[in-house]
Structure formats: structure tokens, C-alpha cells
Write a structure and sequence with these properties.
Blueprint: H1 2-22, H2 34-39, H3 42-63, H4 66-112, H5 116-122, H6 129-143, H7 148-159, H8 162-174, H9 179-231, H10 242-265, H11 278-285
Length: 291
């Protein structure tokens, strides 16, 4: 009985370690500050914990295996985190598409306006939804006589995308040029953004295939194991012993670890920004920013 309790405790610690590692945290819990507690949504955390507990208890009762119940809790807690990579990459691609559409709109507006500061407000009405608020703040800043490089730097920080950084640098460098020169720069910039968009879409399609296959394999294995544990009890009877639960704990830990690894392989590659504030924009363009 002592070894069985030790096995359950080891499994619990292993599952907690896997969950903390998947969230990029240290295995040993650090001291949580008050500011960090405010960032987390307590209602969402409580709801997710309640669902995980209910599922874990149900699985434990159906299979009569404590390890299976603990594994179900781990899967329910981990699954939203594991499945989030697809949504993150899809949102990133949508942002690139919005930047490409807005750059083309700005190019058309620059052809009919006398300069960049006059062309920017003209793109506000038809701006993509993802850029509408940052662009409105940019136009309001220009109306308040904020220097153009400073307003563009704030716009890039609000969009928070590498593609927006490229556009902002190009606009800052060509802000004082004539409308014809500005149109040529924006045409080249829009074409480059479209090329990057097509490449990102292809990568997204390939990664979605990997995610879909990995999810199917993971759910298929869980379904087969669950059906055997409930309806084909004789096949898996050895797992009902203490040592059988120990073996099942090892298999469950390997399964969760491989699931986390498989999902991380499908995560999008990071695209770090190279602008952060007006000072970085001044360094990138080689100009002094007037405040």
C-alpha cells in the first residue's frame, strides 16, 4: 500500500512538472507577486480546473485507475495550451495580410495627396480591422502635432509585428520625399509584404497538417485506451495492480511528454521585432527624433 501511495504522489509531481514546463516555468514554483496574480484570469483558471477535476474523477471511476484519472486531468489542462499555437500563427498571418492591404491603400492615397501626413488619414475609413485602432491613434497623434517619427514608432509598438516595423522604417525614411517617390517606395514595400504573406500562408498550411495529424493520433490513442479500460477489462487487468499502475504512470508520462513535444514542433517560429520606441526608430533611420 505504501508503494502505491508513493506511485500516486510521484505521478502527481510528474504531471505538475510537465504542466509547468509546458508553460515555460521552472519546475520548482517561484514566489508569485501580487502584480502577476492580477494578470491571470481567476474565473477562467477556476473554470478550467473544475472541468479538469470533473473529467479526471469521471475517468477514474470508469477505469478504476487513479493514474488514468490524473492523466485525464493533465490532458484537459494542457490541451488548450497545446492547441493554441495554431490560433497564434493564424492571427500572425492575418496581421501580415492586414499590413499588406493597408500598405497598398496608403500607396493609392499617396498618389493623390501631397505628402505622407495627408495620406495617412485617408486610409483610416477602409483600414483592416486589425489595424483600425492603431491607425486611429496614429492619426489622432498627428492631429495633436506629435512628430511623425514618434507617432510612427507608437503605431509600430501598438501593432507589435515585424512587418509593421519594416513599413514604419520605410515611411520614416521617405516621409520628406515627393508623392511620386513615396508611391514607388510603397509599391515595392507592398509587393515585398505580399511575398512574405504568401510564404507565411504556405508554412501555416503545412503546420496545420502536422497539428491535425498529431491531434488525431493523440485522441485516437486516448480513445483506444479508454475503450479497452472500460469494455475490454480482461485485456488490461494487469494494470489494476500496484505495479501495473506504476507502469501505467510511466506510459502516461511518456505520452504527455511526447504530446507536448509534438505540438511544440508545430509551433510557429518566432519573428522578433527590431523596433521598440522612437529611439530605436531613430537609430534605424539614422535621424534625431524631435520631441
Amino acid at each position: 500500500m505504501t508503494s502505491f501511495v508513493a506511485c500516486i504522489l510521484a505521478v502527481c509531481l510528474g504531471i505538475i512538472g510537465v504542466i509547468r514546463a509546458s508553460h515555460g516555468k521552472n519546475l520548482l514554483p517561484a514566489r508569485v507577486t501580487t502584480a502577476r496574480r492580477k494578470v491571470a484570469d481567476p474565473q477562467q483558471t477556476a473554470r478550467q480546473g473544475t472541468i479538469a477535476l470533473i473529467v479526471g474523477v469521471a475517468v477514474g471511476i470508469l477505469t478504476r485507475w487513479p493514474v488514468a484519472g490524473l492523466m485525464a486531468v493533465a490532458v484537459v489542462i494542457l490541451w488548450p495550451k497545446l492547441a493554441r499555437s495554431g490560433a497564434v500563427e493564424k492571427h500572425s498571418v492575418a496581421k501580415i495580410e492586414a499590413i499588406a492591404n493597408w500598405t497598398e491603400s496608403l500607396r493609392d492615397a499617396a498618389a493623390s495627396e501631397s505628402g505622407l501626413e495627408q495620406a495617412l488619414p485617408a486610409t483610416l475609413d477602409g483600414a483592416p480591422a486589425l489595424l483600425r485602432r492603431p491607425l486611429r491613434n496614429l492619426v489622432n497623434a498627428l492631429d495633436l502635432r506629435t512628430p511623425l517619427p514618434v507617432a510612427l514608432a507608437h503605431f509600430a509598438d501598438e501593432v507589435d509585428d515585424r512587418g509593421a516595423d519594416k513599413v514604419v522604417i520605410a515611411l520614416s525614411l521617405t516621409a520628406q520625399q515627393r508623392a511620386g517617390s513615396l508611391k514607388r517606395v510603397l509599391t515595392t514595400l507592398a509587393a515585398n509584404t505580399r511575398a512574405e504573406l504568401e510564404m507565411r500562408r504556405k508554412v501555416l498550411t503545412e503546420r496545420n497538417g502536422v497539428r491535425r495529424q498529431s491531434n488525431q493520433v493523440a485522441l485516437g490513442l486516448l480513445a483506444v485506451a479508454g475503450l479497452q479500460a472500460v469494455f475490454l477489462r480482461g485485456w488490461v487487468e494487469p494494470y489494476s495492480t500496484v505495479y501495473g499502475q506504476m507502469v501505467l504512470a510511466v506510459l502516461a508520462a511518456v505520452y504527455v511528454g511526447l504530446l507536448v513535444r509534438l505540438q511544440r514542433l508545430a509551433e510557429p517560429e518566432p519573428h522578433p521585432r527590431f523596433l521598440s520606441g522612437a529611439e530605436a526608430l531613430a537609430q534605424a533611420t539614422g535621424r534625431e527624433v524631435a520631441w
